[in-house]
Amino acid sequence: MKDYLDKVKFSFLFNGISSRELELALDCLRAEDMHFPKGMVIVKEGELCERFGLLISGQLQSTQYDYQGNRSIIQTIEPLQIFNENYCFVHEKSPVNIETVEDSHVLFLKSDIQGSTFPPACSFHRRLLNNLFIIQTHKNVELTQKLECMSKRTTREKLMTFLKLESLKQGAKEFDIRLDRQQLADYLGIERSAMSAELSRMVKEGLIRTRKFHFEII
Q1: pLDDT at position 90, please?
Q2: pLDDT digits (tens, 9 = 90+) for 83-93
Q3: By the 8 A CB rule, do 204 and 168 touch?
Q4: Would you put residue 91 in left (φ > 0), alpha (ψ -120 to 50) or beta?
Q5: What region holds the HTH crp-type domain (predicted)?
Q6: Phi/psi at 71 (nearest 5 deg)?
Q7: In terms of domains, do 52 and 96 share one?
Q8: Last residue of a domain, one of 94, 128, 146
Q9: CATH of the domain at 157
Q10: Strands, E, within 88-191: which ranges?
Q11: Domain check: are 98 and 176 in the same one?
Q12: Residue 114 in this model has a pLDDT that exceeds 60
């Protein structure tokens, strides 16, 4: 456990919880850490969620595929973030796949964190619930921002909305994103070729500068 304890204590899920309480919490949550190679589906769409995950290292994405096999990226999951907690708590099937973008180390937590498996002596229980509420609030904001991008009619409008939101998030007009071109197209629900052509036009018109993962709004 000590191999990952020093890392997961920095997750907001365990904010305000002491090192001793963290060990107790992980025991209550029946924590199990697992390593996965790049390009692996670790949770399948339609799979009953009996546990949720906390990413220790690497990168994950939640994805969906339509009947033609086109991929849509719902969310990118970074280290120390949790995933699939909503479906776990209500014992629902996952509506998304969870895929590894890089070699990833994941901590799975199997519990009804809302109360049924925590003994009354768990002093950290209320803090966990409060932290979860804050995490869900942030996720709702991110979902609203994605919906704002998806609601735009044209490829340019979707791109500019995404870039402006990312600029606000990072507090600068020049920034890097974690999505490559294909991932960005999948996130915005547009064809990569059409997106690349639009980015080139936006550069020529002096709206942006870009190179690989780097963007600057002019």
Answers
A1: 83
A2: 999 888 888 89
A3: no
A4: left
A5: 153-218
A6: -95, 140
A7: yes
A8: 146
A9: 1.10.10.10
A10: 97-100, 104-109, 174-176
A11: no
A12: no
Cut 0.90: pTM above it: no
Six-digit token string for 113: 């964190």
Instruction: Assign residue 212 a region (left: φ > 0; alpha: ψ between -120 and 50; beta: otherwise).
Output: left
Total count of domains within the chain: 2
| Residue that finishes a domain, picked among 146, 166, 182 | 146
pLDDT in the model for residue 115: 52
- What is the separation of C-alpha 23 from the centre of its chain, rounded to a whole number of angstroms? 25
In degrees rounded to 5, what are phi and psi of residue 98? -115, 115
In terms of Cβ atoms closer than 10 Å to its own Cβ (0-12, 13-18, 19+), residue 171 is exposed
pLDDT (mean) for 6-30: 90
Q: What is the pLDDT of residue 14?
A: 94
Per the prediction, the chain carries an average pLDDT of 90
As given in the structure block, the two tokens for residue 216 are 């600057």
> Does residue 1 carry a pLDDT above 90?
no
Residue range 117-134, pLDDT digits in tens: 555 556 778 888 889 999
Long-range contacts from 78-81, C-beta under 8 angstroms, 24+ separation: 78/178, 79/7, 79/55, 80/7, 80/8, 80/10, 80/11, 80/12, 80/54, 80/55, 80/56, 81/11, 81/54, 81/55
**Same domain for 139 and 168?**
no
Which amino acid appears at position 94 of this protein?
Answer: S
- The radius of gyration of the chain from alpha carbons, rounded to an integer in Å, stands at 19
Tell me which residue range forms the domain holding 13.
2-146
Question: What CATH number corresponds to the domain at position 140?
Answer: 2.60.120.10
